[in-house]
What we know:
Elements: H1 5-22, H2 26-33, H3 41-56, H4 58-66, H5 79-94, H6 100-114, H7 119-137, H8 151-154
Amino acid sequence: MAFKRRLVREKVLQALYAYELSGEPVDFVVEHILASLEKERETFEFAAKFVKAVIEHSDEIDGIIRGHVEHWEFSRLAIIDKLILRMGICELLYYDDIPPKVSINESIEIARLYSTEKSDKFVNGVLDAILSDLTKSGKLKKSGRGLQTSRTQQRPPKQ
């Protein structure tokens, strides 16, 4: 793709935040928050689809998050952290062409930029645990070079 996914992820985060706080219809939020991406149709369409996928699957994704933050009250999670986790999990589950480590690393970087001082470590820990569970359960549907497993998972165990 000809666009920078980091910029797109940041815009998607902004759109999800606006949607969460404003209560406006998703199409209204997408139209206004993602407007700067419209110059490149492919970029805009990817971002709009991503926003809608996160919202569409938020109940399922929130269930996954709840299962991995047992010592936290879900309602007390920082909203930005929750949105970043939703985005990362959505990528893991529904974007077969994005390597899991890319999704996790991008989530960590966005948490560093937009959330609290410790959010990057929190997001990293939660997404790593979710990736591990998805891999073990066979729910991770990635294919192609660098998409199915990491190099460390491919190495034979030490004798």
